[in-house]
Write a structure and sequence with these properties.
This protein has nine helices and nine strands. It is of the alpha/beta class. Bound molecules: adenosine-5-diphosphoribose (APR).
Length: about 230
């Protein structure tokens, strides 16, 4: 079975009503990530950070997977599909994707502030001050904040190396090390970049740019890949 590796970003969830980060109305055009998405921010104002993630988590809980997520699920009928996502939402999983690796964490999970191995799934959308881990320490969002290490990049690189086909969707490819994954895919393998602002990534061979939304571009691309 051929392996399709997908690198997804915020754009695949845009049509589900979840804001991206760097588009016109993007999150980091409205808020300063330094005050909301760093360990220092959490240390100095934990309630503000927890409220910010509660607000984002409520949107995720109330969102639904869109045609883009569902198209990737259909690929599983013919291919070994490995999704590497920069997104912290769980829409790939809720659509039915089986193999999802989250590079930047998962907003619907919480982690102990004293034991990084302790991770728990949140029932609702709230995580507040006073919500403690079994060791009695405050729980924090299970998110990779700016300045923290992307611990899953190693396994992600190994997956990228094994791709027979690469699909990049809904990412501006400006955040590293996630964006570097495209160079680990073998040069001779076909690559597709689905994004209204997709561009010819420098030096990437066998790349087809599909300047469409995930909701339109992915179903069309999946139809082609199912015919191979
Ligand atoms: N379909 C496909 N792509 C879309 C759509 C859509 N409907 N709407 C927007 N896009 C594209 C934009 O053109 C842009 O290229 O999604 C991309 C969003 O880029 P960013 O907002 O930079 O999001 P992303 O690339 O996922 O950011 C990477 O930055 O802040 C960190 O941790 C955060 O994981 C995030 C990382």
């Amino acid at each position: 079975m051929k392996r399709i590796v997908v690198l997804s970003g915020a754009g695949i969830s845009a049509e589900s009503g979840i804001q991206t980060f760097r588009d016109g109305d993007g999150l980091w055009n409205q808020y300063r990530f330094e005050e909301l998405a760093t360990p220092q921010a959490f240390a100095s104002n934990p309630k503000l950070v927890l409220d910010f993630y509660n607000w984002r988590r409520k949107i995720v809980v109330e969102a639904e997977p869109n045609a883009g997520h569902k198209a990737l699920v259909r690929l599983q009928e013919k291919y070994d599909v490995q999704i590497i996502t920069q997104n912290v939402d769980n829409l790939h999983e809720r659509a039915g994707s089986k193999n999802v690796l989250h590079l930047h964490g998962e907003i619907c999970k919480a982690r102990s502030t004293v034991d990084p191995e302790y991770i728990e799934k949140l029932d609702g959308w709230e995580l507040n001050l006073g919500d403690l881990c079994p060791k009695g320490a405050q729980l924090r969002p299970h998110i990779v904040w700016f300045g923290e290490s992307v611990d899953m990049i190693g396994p992600a690189v190994e997956i990228a190396r094994t791709a027979d086909i690469l699909i990049v969707v809904g990412t501006s490819l400006v955040v590293y090390p996630a964006a570097s994954l495209v160079v680990y895919v073998r040069p001779d393998k076909p690559k597709f970049y689905v994004d209204p602002k997709a561009f010819k990534v420098g030096g990437l061979q066998n790349l087809e740019v599909i300047s469409k939304t995930a909701g339109n571009g992915l179903p069309e691309l999946v139809n082609r890949l199912m015919e191979l």
